Automatic annotation (TrEMBL), chain A:
<keyword id="KW-0175">Coiled coil</keyword>
<keyword id="KW-0931">ER-Golgi transport</keyword>
<dbReference type="InterPro" id="IPR050302">
    <property type="entry name" value="Rab_GAP_TBC_domain"/>
</dbReference>
<dbReference type="GO" id="GO:0016192">
    <property type="term" value="P:vesicle-mediated transport"/>
</dbReference>
<keyword id="KW-0653">Protein transport</keyword>
<feature type="region of interest" description="Disordered">
    <location>
        <begin position="248"/>
        <end position="318"/>
    </location>
</feature>
<dbReference type="GO" id="GO:0005737">
    <property type="term" value="C:cytoplasm"/>
</dbReference>
<feature type="coiled-coil region">
    <location>
        <begin position="584"/>
        <end position="703"/>
    </location>
</feature>
<feature type="region of interest" description="Disordered">
    <location>
        <begin position="1"/>
        <end position="180"/>
    </location>
</feature>
UniProtKB/TrEMBL annotation, chain B:
<dbReference type="InterPro" id="IPR005225">
    <property type="entry name" value="Small_GTP-bd"/>
</dbReference>
<keyword id="KW-0547">Nucleotide-binding</keyword>
<feature type="region of interest" description="Disordered">
    <location>
        <begin position="199"/>
        <end position="234"/>
    </location>
</feature>
<feature type="compositionally biased region" description="Acidic residues">
    <location>
        <begin position="140"/>
        <end position="149"/>
    </location>
</feature>
<feature type="region of interest" description="Disordered">
    <location>
        <begin position="133"/>
        <end position="152"/>
    </location>
</feature>
<dbReference type="InterPro" id="IPR001806">
    <property type="entry name" value="Small_GTPase"/>
</dbReference>
<dbReference type="GO" id="GO:0005525">
    <property type="term" value="F:GTP binding"/>
</dbReference>
<dbReference type="InterPro" id="IPR027417">
    <property type="entry name" value="P-loop_NTPase"/>
</dbReference>
<dbReference type="Pfam" id="PF00071">
    <property type="entry name" value="Ras"/>
</dbReference>
Amino acid sequence: MSFSSLTSALPPMPWSPPATEPQPKSPPAAAATTAPPPPAPAPASTGRKFNSPFSWLSRSSSREPPAVQHAPSARRNTASSVATMTSNPEMMLSKLEEDKNGEGRDNGSRNSLKDRFKALRMIGEAVPPPEEDKAGLAATDSGESGPAAHPPLSPLPQSPNRNLAPGTASGVTAGPSSIVDAPVDWDLWQAVVNEGPAAVARSSPEDLNKAIATGIPNAIRGVIWQVLAQSKNEELEAVYRELVVRGTDKEKKKDQDRQSSGTPTSATVNGSAKGSASSASSVHSENSQNGVPSPAEKDTESAKKAQAASAAQRQKKDKEDLVMLQKLEKTIRRDLGARTSYSKFAAAQGLQEGLFGVCKSYALFDEGVGYAQGMNFLVMPILFNMPEEEAFCLLVRLMNQYHLRDLFIQDMPGLHLHLYQFERLLEDFEPALYCHLRRRGISPHLYATQWFLTLFAYRFPLQLVLRIYDLILSEGLSAILKFGIVLMQKNAAALLAISDMSQLTAFLKDRLFDVYIDSSPSSTSILENGFFGSSSSSIDKEVYRADQLVRDACEVKMTPETLKVYQVEWEEKTRAEREREAELEALRASNASYAVRMRKLEERLQEVDAEQASLATELVRTKVDNDELRDENEGLRIQVQELRIVIEKQPAEIEAVWQLERDDLMKRNEKVHEENQRLEKELSELEEELVQTKMQYAEVNSQHETLTRKWTDLKRQFQ
Amino acid sequence: MADSNAPKPSSSVKLVLLGEAAVGKSSLVLRFVNNDFQENKEPTIGAAFLTQKCNLPTRTIKFEIWDTAGQERFASLAPMYYRNAQAALVVYDLTKPTSLIKAKHWVAELQRQASPGIVIALVGNKLDLTNDGTGAGGGDAEDAGAEDPGDARKISTDEAQTYAEEEGLLFFETSAKTGYNVTEVFTAIANAIPETSLRTARGPGASQAASRTEEQRVNLNGPRDPNAKETCAC
């Protein structure tokens, strides 16, 4: 189709706006500015949609009106359109623009995005009819900037890679490579912006899916991302501006300003900033949902009160905070520069400060997460597409509504869950590969951790990462699982052929995307590749079939139910594990107490043993004694028996002896008796004798007397 | 390297690197494995796996090196890497006192949780930033910036050595940047691994059976034997 050649000639148009940024801060930065411009979302190309030629017609016809409007509306929305254009390193500029925008806060976040989209669409659609475009361009230029915009225009279309200094011209024409096959469905994107992704998803889900699968045009990627995530939130941006300067001189200045002027805006900012420091982030996420500055008044009052009451206290706390802050800043800084992905892109250099700001602000904003390595990687692709305030809002949104936060909080439960889901899905989809890896001890923890923590931004080519972000933002984090599975499927044969563990891990970490290398890239896809400037690393020199990747990923049949089932499984598993651990802990504790008890019992046992031993010896001794005693007893018993015999014999003997003695005695008695009788006889004889004697004596005596008287008579006679 | 003419017994050793963020774990590995050094190496997300052989007079040791992410946040991933490890390299930064405290925590955790016979080496890295460094001065841009360019040392050799002796650790001061002492660390570890804990490469049948039983126990050790097999092949 000649049409395509025509349109491919046009892409330079969108170029002009970016070039309108007048201040080239540094050469590389300036080069970078050119990079993210609204590329050639040229409704170009050989229609992949041959089936709907009429849509072509209608689109081309519908293209007219906006083109006509182009100039005026561009003027009307200068500020916002420029702001979008500056989704690039010129942070100062974009900041200025944002400040301007901030005044019109009432419009609501959606509106500003809408305006921006309108402008972008106009630029994008205005491309085809060259004449009109030039007019439009001129208008824009005259309105905002110098002629710097033009030079790169002419050479580009024909041979995109002819004069391509890396990071400069090549970026210009780079649109989503999808434009090769399909026209950009501006109406659909418009509907997404105006009605919200949910509404579009309801009314025409297939179209939306297809549109996202074919890539969001680079020009409006930043806007669409924010719409998809519903992240635009002025309030939060103010919080960001507050947080990002914390601990710097700027903050002090701001403080002073605030104290002197006390404008409501700054007070609001102050209030919400404080809230962010102390209160849970959920409050903010709610705010971000509403996008309404309703709490502003309250905040103002409380802020004033707090200011008055605790100024001194705060100063003290500030000092402590400052030390923490410096530590934090040092940690973040260490991971910047060459240590972030895509740092080799020219455009990335100017973004380092923005990256630092976003990381630091988020760390301050969400104390439960703080700064975790990995954030720096995942923020970079966002910063390529929008100014840092908006990147911050999108990050907050990703963390909370997309539950990315669960992956970063202490112990990383979300990460473990997703890894488990991935492992189970891998088992379902590629059982052979699953076994192959498992047998070699390569768990997804080893290679897929970085996918989840950095949304593939750690090592993989930016062209693909941006497309992955598209899908993640529209579908949620489960898109990572899809991409993971697709990559494993496509590489299954290669992986199965490798059996060395280190080669396997190296392949899994660095070469999974190689299957999507486009060996014969079309010119548009080459341009796409160079979108952010070439990098010296080899992976970004290749051109990838990003559409194919996204299409494949979308085709992965992965129902929320399965995921839910796996989630439940995981929860059960962790619960079981936790229970087991608790049980183990309890067992360990009881074990310890049992051990103590056992030791005590052992001691007692020892005592008892000793006691028993002594008892045993005693027993032995007793037994010995016993035996002795028994022997003795036996002896005694024999003795007794003998004695008894003796005793039994004795009475007879005694009787006999006694008899003998008695007989003897009787005999003796008889003798004595006889003697006695004899003696009595003798006695009687003697008595007789005595009587005789006495009678004799009496006779004698009487004789004597007769004789005496005779004598006496005789005597007298004589006388 | 692999083709030693006399077939020496070869065995695999699982080695894990632990330590605070940005002390130079990945750089040490890079120096040991590729003899290379990169300024401003990107932080490790998750973990990295590399292998390198170490030739000893009597045998060949094939190190399976698990390089972990240092940030506190990633600590919950560490157990699955040091599980069944036979050796650990606990790295600290000579110029950063907090990194030694963290290293001590790791040593305590390893002694409590890791396999009982694990050989632990305490390594103070970034010697090039101190006066002892072979290429003193210059230094690692990331940390040396604010410090005295001459000697940024904050942890004396004595302090760390005493601690290492108390805990029975191997101790080295290295510089991944200059390469000083790096190979020595790994050689010392290889020598310190007790012969009994080494599993030499066996026939395919045996190794497969071994790995299968290990798989049933769900540990990360499974691959050791298949890998050992490859060692034979090359």
